[in-house]
Design brief:
By secondary structure, the chain is of the alpha+beta class. Helix content is 18%, strand content 36%. It is built from eight helices and 24 strands. The strands form five sheets. It has a six-stranded mixed β-sheet with strand order 1-12-8-9-10-11. The chain starts with a strand and ends with a strand. The N terminus is likely disordered.
Length: 368
C-alpha cells in the first residue's frame, strides 16, 4: 500500500523557524516625495483590508509545553506532529517498539499517545491508539483525521478540543486511508540537534545500555537483561545476523519480535525489527516470517545495501460485507520497483500460511 509521505515539522526545524519568523514593517524611503508618500499611504490603506496575520500553530504557541513532553519521553521513543485541528497541531509520541523503517528513509509508527491543546488552552493527553501491523502505519487524512488500523479494520480518530476528548470511529475506512499521509517520526534522542547524521537509540539494547555502537556481537549480548534473548540467523545472503529479543517465551524460547544486527566494516549495525502478531518468528533460506495465525502473511529479507530490513511479502485476508477479500504484494528480489500484487484467492493464501507454518521457529538463547 503506497501512500504519500508527510515530511512533518520536526522539533529542531520548528525551533529555528519559530525563532526566525518575526513580523517586519517596511520603512518608507527617505527620498520619497510628498506625492509618492500620499500614493503609498493610499495604496497601503487600500490593501489593509485584504491583509491577514496568520496565527501561530498550537505547536508554535505552546512550544515550551511540547518541548517538555519530548524531553521527558523515553529516550528510545519517537515523535511526530499531526494536523488534527484547524489551529491545533497535535503531537504523537510512539514507543520505540512500535516504530519501523518505512522503506523510504523515514520512520513510521503503528501507534502512540496523542497530545494537543485542551479546553483550558494547555497541552493535555488525549489518549493512546495502536494499530495492528507495519502495513498500516499512522496517517492523517482530510478533515483533521488520524487513521490507525490493521488487516481488517481501519479506524478514524478526531479530537474534540472544546471538550478535551478523543473520538474514535471504528470501521473499515480503507478507501480514505489510501489517500492519507503517513506520519514521519523523529527520534526523541536527537530532539533539538540539527546534525542530520546524528542518531539516537534505535532499539531496546541501545536504550538500556546507553550505547549507540558496539565492538562486536558479544558486547551486545552482554547488555541483555534476564529474560531477554538472542539468536544467530540468516537474512538474505547474510548468515551471521544477530537477532535480539526483548521478550522471550520461557517455555519454547520463541519471540514475536526481534531487533537485528549485521556486521558492517567490522562493527555491528542495527538494521531494524522483524515482527509477528501473537505467533513466533520463523526463519529459513534467508527469509524471516511473521504475520498472524490465519489472516496475515509476512516475509522479510534485507534491502540491496544489506543495512535494512525489507518486506519480501505482505498478504492479507479480510472479511467485508460478508465477502472474503485478499490483497497485498510480493517481491521475488530485494528491489523496490518490482512489486507484484497478490492476485490469488483462498486456496493460494491458505497455501502460503501452511507453508510458513512449516518453517522452523527461531529459538532464542535466554539470558539468565
Amino acid at each position: 500500500m503506497k501512500k504519500r509521505l508527510a515530511y512533518i515539522l520536526t522539533g529542531a526545524l520548528a525551533l529555528s523557524a519559530f525563532a526566525g519568523c518575526g513580523t517586519q514593517n517596511a520603512a518608507p524611503a527617505a527620498a520619497a516625495t510628498e506625492t509618492n508618500q500620499e500614493t503609498t499611504e493610499a495604496s497601503v490603506q487600500a490593501a489593509e483590508p485584504e491583509t491577514e496575520t496568520e496565527k501561530p500553530s498550537a505547536f508554535e504557541a505552546n512550544l515550551d509545553s511540547y518541548e517538555s513532553l519530548i524531553l521527558s519521553a523515553p529516550v528510545d521513543a519517537y515523535y511526530a506532529f499531526a494536523d488534527l485541528a484547524e489551529m491545533s497541531d497535535a503531537m504523537i509520541i510512539a514507543p520505540g517498539d512500535l516504530t519501523f523503517d518505512n522503506g523510504d528513509g523515514t520512520t513510521a509508527a503503528t501507534g502512540g499517545t496523542i497530545y494537543a491543546l485542551g479546553p483550558d488552552g494547555n497541552i493535555m493527553e488525549y489518549g493512546y491508539v495502536e494499530g495492528g501491523g507495519t502495513a498500516t502505519p499512522l496517517a492523517t487524512g482530510e478533515g483533521y483525521v488520524l487513521f490507525y488500523g490493521g488487516r481488517d479494520y481501519m479506524n478514524k480518530v478526531t479530537l474534540d478540543t472544546d471538550a478535551g476528548k478523543l473520538n474514535i470511529d471504528e470501521g473499515e475506512y480503507f478507501d480514505e486511508y489510501e489517500d492519507a499521509i503517513t506520519l514521519a517520526f523523529m527520534p526523541v534522542a536527537t530532539y533539538g540537534n540539527s546534525d542530520e547524521d546524528c542518531d539516537g537509540p534505535s532499539d531496546f539494547v541501545q536504550e538500556q545500555s546507553g550505547k549507540l555502537e558496539f565492538a562486536d556481537y558479544d558486547e551486545i549480548i552482554s547488555f541483555l537483561k534476564p529474560g531477554q534473548g538472542y539468536a544467530t540467523i540468516q537474512i538474505g545472503d547474510d548468515g551471521n545476523v544477530l537477532a535480539v529479543a526483548e521478550e522471550v517465551n520461557k517455555e519454547d524460547h520463541t519471540a514475536t519480535s526481534a531487533s537485528c544486527y549485521v556486521m558492517k566494516d567490522g562493527k555491528p549495525v542495527e538494521v531494524g525489527y522483524v515482527i509477528a502478531n501473537q505467533i513466533p518468528l520463523r526463519a529459513a533460506d534467508g527469509v524471516v516470517y511473521g504475520g498472524d495465525e490465519k489472516n496475515t502473511y509476512e516475509a522479510n529479507f534485507l534491502n540491496p545495501e544489506g543495512n535494512g530490513i525489507m518486506a519480501k511479502a505482505y498478504i492479507y485476508k479480510t472479511e467485508e460485507n460478508g465477502k472474503t477479500e485478499f490483497g497485498g504484494f510480493m517481491r521475488e528480489t530485494n528491489t523496490f520497483d518490482q512489486d507484484q500484487d497478490f492476485t490469488g484467492g483462498e486456496e493460494e493464501f491458505d497455501a502460503l500460511i501452511a507453508e510458513r507454518d512449516k518453517v522452523p521457529v527461531i529459538e532464542f538463547t535466554i539470558v539468565e
